[in-house]
Records
---
Amino acid sequence: MLVFCVECQQHNGRLKLADLPDWDWSEISAHLKCTFCGKVGWVDTRLDWGEVVDFAKGVSG
Ligand SMILES: [Zn+2]
């Protein structure tokens, strides 16, 4: 999962689901803390597609 802060729009890194406690995702999100502005629970999580789609290479070839 990719984690972004809603407050400051900084990228807070990646999480492996296997490394997280066995909580509901909403619970986990509510406990995540931004490493930049320190907000807790102000994070947006997204599926990490980086290993599937390489945006740096693009599709226009
Ligand atoms: Zn932040």
---
Amino acid sequence: MDKVYKNCQSCRMPLKKSPNGGGTNSDGSTSTKYCDYCYEKGQFRQANITAKEMQEFVKHKMKDMGFPGFLASLFSNGIPKLERWKNQN
Ligand SMILES: [Zn+2]
């Protein structure tokens, strides 16, 4: 069995906030690891992004959504520890 994650292991968004509860695997099932915004049909939507770029992306996105800057920074600081980035340095 796959581990069930609470947050997307690419962008850290809570998976329950993902429109379909998660991205789609190549077999069409719902991913328990990545959200709709990051993952579709077994592929990352932003395949060549780095952890650092993802951090910036999420930080800006959160600010756009009205989150205070310190919170956006705090949240995005956890991104490099997620599964997608763990082995990428
Ligand atoms: Zn995501």
